[in-house]
Protein: Sugar ABC transporter permease
Organism: Labrys okinawensis
Amino acid sequence: MAIRNRVASIRRATPRHTHLGRMAALFLLPSAAFILALIAYPLCNVLWQSFHYGNLVDPATRGYAGLDNFRTVLEDEDFLPALWHTLSWTTLSVGGEYLLGLTAAVVLAQPIKGRAFFRGVVVVPWVIPIAIAGLNWMWLLNPDYGVLNAWMVRLGLLDNPHDWLGQINTALPTVTFVNIWRSFPFYTISLLAALQAVPADLHEAAAIDGAGPIRRFWVITMPHLKAVSLTLIVIHIIWTAINFDFIWVMTEGGPLNASQTLPVMIYKYAMQDYDVGAACALASMSMAFMASLFFVYFYGNRRMRS
């Protein structure tokens, strides 16, 4: 009798659940249409264009290209240097952001005087638009009237002002440093929130057992930061690898392509060479790599949880 009543109640509840599911789908429909229009369609169009000839100034240049666009990119003498610059830029940026963000988070988690003020100030670089931050740093680093060059010469760190953005050996490291300065607050905020969730009694118990601050940090704190750290690193690897703004604003990929990355190369293919097919082919290759990285992280994280 109890089973029969349970089945009857489920049957009565099913139409209600179906109605709620339909209502939820109806409310999600505008968002789905928005995503399809602004994300899915452009991505599919890029994939389509990568297998076709296209030129912005010559409409007659069109037709199926097969793998010719990909061959054009891979045979370009600037491709391997740009790939190396992208790897260097991404690795150094993400590594520097994480280390600086973790250090700032640990410091701001301590009961220091003025902690609330410093927690507010640390966010300032992150909220500054990239274009404005890039232009400000260009002025600060200018060899003729830059404040930082003047200070370093006055302090004896430099004999003469240095053109940080105009020299082949320093252009990319300088832009990387500026990118770290702007992005580390995001790490700081996220890691600081995770630090607040670490149980204080674990630290107290470890201290009673004789564990020092460094050992407590590696044994207790870091395991609690693992999930947040992995998420931050993967997200920022993708964001940094496809970042175009900072490098273009500060160096435009120069001097002599010394700071040219793959996104800058895509822009030059499309807007300077007007070769839409090659630009879309390189964009598709970059997109495939980012998607592979995401799926590796997603399924790896899923297996670790299971």
Remarks:
- The chain has a mean pLDDT of 85.
- The domain at 79-259 is CATH 1.10.3720.10 (MetI-like fold).
- The beta strands are 52-53, 63-64.
- The longest strand covers residues 52-53.
